[in-house]
Design goal:
Layout: E1 8-17, E2 20-30, E3 35-39, H1 46-53, E4 61-66, E5 69-70, H2 75-80, E6 83-86, H3 97-107, H4 112-125, H5 141-154, E7 159-163, H6 171-188, E8 191-196, H7 199-205, E9 208-213, E10 216-221, H8 223-228, H9 233-238, E11 243-252, E12 257-262, H10 272-276, E13 281-285, E14 293-298, E15 304-306, E16 319-331, E17 334-340, E18 344-350, H11 351-357, E19 364-369, E20 374-378
Parallel strand pairs: 3-8, 3-9, 6-7, 7-8
Antiparallel strand pairs: 1-2, 1-4, 4-5, 9-10, 11-12, 11-14, 12-13, 14-20, 15-19, 16-17, 16-19, 17-18
Helix pairs in contact: 3-4, 3-5, 4-5
Length: 389
């Protein structure tokens, strides 16, 4: 199958501020109809990347291609007429909702008889038709952002840029708006690039996710690959791999598995610990030579926690460790457990499980996880070396 040509492409894009490169992206491609989210901590360069791609700031180096043609110089105005951008703050005019939605069409010189129909379609699409004659100054945060989105879609952009569009909204409003935006993007097959610090937002809406750190894109992948095969420790931590363990392979095993000894106080366990069943040795999946150093990462939802009594024979997991709850903290509808199993291990459990099992700090437990739940990041590799399911 022939790969789609890119609708947008950035090459060797560098933005310098105060003598420091705040953006340094070798390559980024966006396919027609694709929804790409850019995630990363504050200061990672997400907004700078969007502004550079949208033509709002000029990079000191590199180029941007739209349908294969440069957008520099005289081509920049034509390019900007074919895109739209939605900011964290709606930035509405002091007029009615319908006039705000129509503003981009008027700037582009669209005939008046076509403007009315397009405005009606967009306010209906985003559930704000009943607010059409309302002053923008009287809108709630969610209503204002819906108006901003309707205005952006009204001009029929080929690419929609979204800079933290849900950051200032309360959770129920944010949930509704994410669902509506996802629906409209799919219906219209609009290509979109969204910057967010919230990985859950990115997972909900994206075909692909790019992780930024220090102005660079450190990994761009499908949500499934990104969450299960992080390229390095930073990505693993940012996408919720709360257990990150350094170690070295001590022996190979059957069925494509190996044993890895986890470092303790900076020193990796030796091969003799594998034979003794030391709890700091875990089983992983993959072909690794003995002595290779690597990093193991485990998602907390992949860890099962039980009480010691009656545990024997009740799990098929290859990794089973006795441990103690060192810390317990409520996280909304679930609890996060910090376990001491001879190495630190994070686990998520439901509130019902905490009550039923009588879990508390100091409780002795048994933690288990499958060998396939352990993702291995090999030193110097650009991708996780093990398989995730």
């Amino acid at each position: 199958m022939t790969e789609k040509a890119s609708i947008l492409e950035a090459r060797n894009l560098v933005v310098v501020r105060g003598g420091v490169a705040v953006l340094d992206v070798n390559e980024l491609r966006l396919s027609p109809g694709e929804i790409l989210s850019v995630i990363g901590p504050n200061g990672a360069g997400k907004t700078t990347l969007l502004q550079a791609l949208a033509g709002l700031i000029r990079p000191q180096k590199g180029g941007i291609l739209f349908h294969g043609a440069s957008v520099a110089g005289e081509a920049s105005l034509a390019y900007r007429r074919r895109i739209a951008m939605v900011f964290q703050e709606p930035l509405l005019f002091d007029t009615t909702v319908s006039a705000n939605v129509a503003s981009g069409l008027k700037i582009r010189g669209v005939p008046r008889d076509r403007i009315a129909g397009q405005v009606e379609r967009q306010v209906t699409r985003f559930g704000i038709a009943h607010l059409s004659d309302r002053s923008a100054r009287t809108l709630s945060g969610g209503e204002a952002q819906r108006t901003s989105l309707a205005r952006a879609f009204a001009v029929g952009p080929e690419i929609l840029f979204l800079d933290e569009p849900f950051a200032s909204l309360d959770p129920p409003t944010r949930e509704e708006l994410i669902e509506d935006l996802d629906r409209v993007l799919r219906e219209t097959e609009t290509t979109a690039l969204m910057a967010t610090h919230d990985r859950e937002e990115a997972l909900r809406i994206s075909d692909r996710i790019a992780v930024m750190n220090g102005g660079k894109i450190v990994q761009a992948d499908s949500p499934q690959h990104l969450m299960n095969r992080p390229a390095d420790e930073f990505v693993a931590s940012f996408v919720g791999m709360e257990t990150i363990l350094r170690g070295s392979v001590v022996s190979g095993g059957g069925r494509g598995t190996a044993l890895m000894a986890i470092e303790e106080n900076g020193a990796a366990k030796g091969p003799e610990t594998a034979a003794s069943g030391n709890p700091a040795v875990i089983e992983i999946v993959g072909a690794f030579p003995a002595g290779e150093e690597a990093v193991c990462v485990i998602r907390p939802e992949q860890v099962t926690v039980s009480l010691p009594d009656g545990m024997e024979g009740k799990t098929s997991a290859r990794n089973v460790f006795a441990g103690r709850i060192a810390k317990i903290a409520r996280k909304g509808l679930y609890y996060k457990l910090g376990l001491d199993c001879g190495f630190p291990l994070a686990a998520y459990v439901t509130a019902g499980a905490v009550e039923q099992l009588g879990l508390a700090e100091g409780t002795n437990v048994v933690a288990s996880f499958k060998a396939t739940a352990v993702q291995v990041i090999r030193h110097g590799a650009s991708r996780s070396a093990s398989r995730g399911e």
